[in-house]
């Protein structure tokens, strides 16, 4: 068993490695200063770096040291950052704060924010191609992640989120599908890509995929709960913003207590998916799933 404190120590160490990679990932190309500033402003604004850490952890779980996988993991954070920049835009969620700082469009203007997001997304795939693993494994991982970020994944989930806003009642099945695309697809792909880069067998990839899928839903439901019960300083954006915008969330649909129970069930299912794995990496992923819901209690 791994304690929460031990898990957080490993999480921070891996997040720091990702931070170091992100800090220099644009250094070798000629980027207009304003665009470069906008990209780095959002890219280096902090955050848990959960998605790249999941990639590194799942690669290590399947027998590959984190160092060769680090460019791919950092690129995942670039894609995540692009999605946050675009989600904050007035045409989307219209958020003025992100991670306790002005959103990109508030700092640099809408046009530059759009271009910063576009550039981060596109440059991320170039960085993925620098991953020092088997070329065929890198190709599989790039294809997997592209699908998770595209129309059948995160982008499609964002569209559903917008369609469901102010719609009134939707079914729990519809809400879960939206979450599995908007949040879950990238979290699942981060896990799967780590396993693919480690050249894991099909059974291991399937178990890791299930872990990521359940973790993604648990994570988003926990975020829903925090939007109700947390404070603006700890959340990094205005509390209650989802409800104020008419967004459908699990607490709005089934209440706080049932939402907490549901998040725990999803985390438990993620942990069960790891059956057959052992060692520190498995313990880390178990502790991470547990912490995902503990933070929302």
UniProtKB/TrEMBL annotation:
Keywords: Isoprene biosynthesis, Magnesium, Metal-binding, Transferase. The keyword Transferase applies. One of its GO terms (biological process) is terpenoid biosynthetic process. One of its GO terms (cellular component) is cytoplasm. It comes from the Bacteria. Its cofactor is Mg(2+). CDD domains: Trans_IPPS_HT. Signal peptide: none annotated. Pfam families: polyprenyl_synt. One of its GO terms (molecular function) is prenyltransferase activity. Belongs to the FPP/GGPP synthase family. This is Farnesyl-diphosphate synthase.
